[in-house]
Prior knowledge:
Blueprint: H1 5-21, H2 28-34, H3 39-56, E1 83-85, E2 88-97, E3 100-107, E4 112-116
Helix pairs in contact: 2-3
Amino acid sequence: MPPDSGQTLDALIADYLQSVEAGRVPNRQELLDHHPELAASLRAFFADFDRMDRQAAPLRLDADPDATVLPDAARPAALPTVRYFGDYELLEEIARGGMGIVYKARQKSLNRTVALK
Length: 117
């Protein structure tokens, strides 16, 4: 990989994620075609992105983005059931905002309490 390709890859991934958050999913094949020197790294990123998206699907409250913004009085203090996300057991919701949800969680492998966004 040329010296500046890491910065190019970072910029491509950042642009991709910003587009996805804005509701515009870029054409992956076009990205691969325009950046053949980064194709292997981009494919690995897309695979990881898809895997995380599948794992996070059960944690989504609703497909409607407005439905996830709850007033403080309506915010659940604890998850209705124990949920696992990778190595983490989600214990309760701590905070919620425009950039995501923060959970109090237990990291199973190290048996410690953590904040997970």
